[in-house]
Amino acid sequence: PTLPVSAKKNLEDPIEIIVDIVHPAPADVFPAATVVRKLA
Questions:
Q1: pTM of the model
Q2: Per the structure, how many domains does the chain have?
Q3: Which of 1, 28, 30, 32 lies 20 to 30 angstroms, CA to CA, from 17?
């Protein structure tokens, strides 16, 4: 079966998705590194 666009985006940009979930701000304002450090 063909993956939905949302599923493809989750596979291609997991960090971007995490940023969207953790804090609704642009990635350049809320760097992915900060998310990784908080989760680590």
A1: 0.19
A2: 1
A3: 1
